Amino acid sequence: MSDLSRLILDRIRDVPDYPKPGVLFKDITPLLADPAAFSAVTDELAGLHEVDKIVGIEARGFILAAPAAYKAGAGFVPMRKKGKLPSETLDESYDLEYGSATIEVHRDAFAPGDRVLIVDDVLATGGTACAAVELVRRAGAEVVAVAVLMELAFLKGRDRLAGVELHPLVIV
Ligand code: AMP
């Protein structure tokens, strides 16, 4: 295991039964509060691919994607929960490990053919990432890869991302 994977594992806190019984929540706030860990993760995400835009999925994806975009010299694009973006949007609905949701992106968020990296904190069932890939494509851009801090392998989210390059910084 790499030093970075070890550092990430060490700084992500397991919170049982949050937000509902049976879910083991992966809390990234200890990692964000550690400057060495946060900057190592930012550097890793920024160096994965040459891209035009980095998408962050609300809300924890924003925290990871925005500094990575800055570092990479790429633009940052927010993918938000329904009703939060002010201009014209595209939307996709999907099932979560706990509940269901709809995410949106601005219709004009990408230039045609933009190369895009999608970033989130946790890949669980893959519904969110799959919807994000669909939205980027519908908006006329190219998904280069999806990157997550942590993949929960037992939920088989990667099966829903067939044909999409996936970069989990750690797999549990
Ligand atoms: P999914 O669509 O099932 O892959 O769920 C991924 C989304 O839900 C990500 O945006 C995560 O932030 C959040 N999520 C799902 N399961 C967990 C978990 N066990 N711990 C932390 N976040 C989670």
Task: Describe, in plain words, how this protein is organized in 3D.
Helices cover 29% and strands 34% of the residues. With 172 residues, the protein is of the alpha/beta class. The protein has a single domain, classed as Rossmann fold (3-Layer(aba) Sandwich). It has a 7-stranded mixed β-sheet, with helices on both faces. Strand 7 (115-123), helix 5 (127-138) and strand 8 (142-151) form a beta-alpha-beta unit. The radius of gyration is 15 Å and the shape is globular. The termini are close together. The mean pLDDT is 96. Adenosine monophosphate (AMP) binds next to strand 2, strand 7 and helix 5.
**Rg on CA atoms, Å:** 15 Å
Largest sheet, spatial ordering of strands: 5-6-4-3-7-8-9
**Structure ligands:** adenosine monophosphate
**CATH fold assignment:** Rossmann fold
Summarize the helices and strands and which ones pair or pack.
Layout: H1 3-11, E1 13-16, E2 24-27, H2 29-32, H3 35-46, E3 53-57, H4 60-72, E4 75-81, E5 89-95, E6 100-106, E7 115-123, H5 127-138, E8 142-151, E9 166-171
Parallel strand pairs: 3-4, 3-7, 7-8, 8-9
Antiparallel strand pairs: 1-2, 4-6, 5-6
Bound molecules: adenosine monophosphate.
Provide a brief overview of the structure.
It is built from five helices and nine strands, in the order αββααβαββββαββ.
Descriptive keywords:
alpha/beta; Rossmann fold; seven-stranded mixed sheet; binds adenosine monophosphate; transferase; Ade_phspho_trans; globular; 34% strand; 172 residues; two-stranded antiparallel ribbon; adenine binding
